[in-house]
Design goal:
Elements lengths: L1 E10 L8 E9 L3 E5 L6 H8 L5 E8 L2 E2 L5 H7 L1 E4 L11 H9 L4 H14 L1 H4 L11 H13 L5 E5 L7 H16 L3 E5 L3 H7 L2 E6 L2 E7 L6 H8 L5 H4 L1
Helix pairs in contact: 3-4, 3-6, 6-7
The chain binds adenosine-5'-triphosphate (ATP).
Protein name: ABC transporter ATP-binding protein
Organism: Hoeflea olei
Family: Belongs to the ABC transporter superfamily.
């Protein structure tokens, strides 16, 4: 079953200057997909448009068959959208438990405790110290908490914007271990990443976005060849040429 479908999506900050210039792809249930591309290609803008945080100017987005184009982010959470922004994705002055309790407000009261317990089962590093202030966590654990907040509501898709940005290599490893665990639990995962090597090791399929358009959509294994990736990043190959 198709979980997420973009058709000719156009989006950006100014209607006269679209950043995402007509992108189409589908993500199947349980799939794990990374979106790569050079700086400024529009990767973050595209996933923010999907998550209702950037205006769309054309095209459509469907989630589990329902048209969600242009819906605001708070409406999208209820439709099954899980989005983890790159920064400011947790409340650092609150405890781990409080961070989860706030996210759990979206759930019926009777389900909240069970879902928080499920997150603590999935992420024992968080469950072992619920009263720790989130600001005291390492960068990798903060991303884990941000992911747990988004997963509380059992989203149909979890989209992450550069979860390893600014982290040391050791913490990058931690973040990707977490993502591997989330994917293994059957969650449909889409991530934008600058860390090409780690992303390709995690995902089955990779998209390359160049100047707001898809330059490649295929098995992640195809891109382990750095030469092809370099050509794609520089815009020397189109999707047609690499197909
Ligand atoms: N809030 C904003 N307002 C106006 N323009 C923006 C805004 N955010 C990003 N842009 C512009 O949109 C273009 C695409 O940026 P975006 O962050 O989507 O690219 P990216 O592929 O995610 O790059 P990076 O990997 O560097 O984050 C850039 O030219 C950027 O300057």
């Amino acid at each position: 079953m198709t979980t997420l479908a973009l058709r000719d999506l156009k989006a950006g900050y100014d209607r006269d200057l679209p950043i995402v210039k007509g992108v189409s792809f589908e993500v199947e249930e349980g799939e794990c997909l990374c979106i790569l591309g050079p700086n400024g290609a529009g990767k973050s803008t595209m996933i923010k448009a999907v998550a209702g945080l950037v205006p769309t100017f054309g095209g459509t987005v469907h989630l589990n068959g329902a048209d969600i184009t242009g819906l605001a982010s708070h409406q999208l959470v209820r439709k099954g959208m899980g989005f983890v922004p790159q920064t400011e994705n947790i409340f650092t002055s609150l405890t781990i438990l409080e961070n989860l309790q706030i996210a759990a407000q979206l759930l019926p009261a009777a389900e909240r405790a069970n879902r928080i317990a499920a997150m603590f089962d999935m992420f024992p590093d968080l469950g072992s110290r619920p009263r720790t202030e989130a600001g005291a966590l390492s960068g990798g654990q903060r991303q884990m908490l941000a992911a747990a907040r988004a997963l509380l509501t059992e989203p149909k898709v979890l989209i992450l914007d550069e979860p390893s940005a600014g982290l040391s290599p050791k913490l990058v490893g931690q973040v990707f271990d977490t993502l591997r665990r989330i994917s293994a639990a059957g969650v449909t995962l889409v991530l934008v990443e600058q860390n090409v090597r780690a992303a390709l090791a995690l995902t089955e399929r990779a998209l390359v976005l160049v100047d707001g358009r898809l330059a490649h959509d295929g098995p992640a294994d195809d891109l382990h060849d750095g030469k092809l990736l370099g050509e794609l990043f520089l815009g020397h190959r189109s999707a047609e040429a690499s197909a």
